[in-house]
Write a structure and sequence with these properties.
With 100 residues, the protein is mainly α. It has six helices and no strands. The protein has helices at residues 2-7, 11-20, 23-26, 37-63, 71-80, 83-98. Helix 4 packs across helix 6. The longest helix is centred in the middle third of the chain and has 27 residues, at 37-63. The relative contact order is 0.12.
Amino acid sequence: PRYLDQILIYPEQKKAPGIWSKDVIKDMILPAVTFTSDEQTDYSAINNDITTYKDEMVNKFIIGTADISGFDEFVTTINSLGLDKALAVQQSAYDRYLSR
């Protein structure tokens, strides 16, 4: 308990764990869904490309080697890497989950 007092300096930070542990928040967490074999292959490839690019660019934005004015291009690139397809795969798996 004392550890958190040392690192959480703002009142909002100290309230956050209690807020996030409430049942209301638990209802907002997506369940563990399963992909078909084909979905898993597609999703893994897309997610790997998106995650690699995102991690690289976020670091560049933070340290200043990429100008934040290029953020719209960043979003366009993420979309071109197949974000819509990845979301469709997740939606399909979630729909299957709900139909159980």
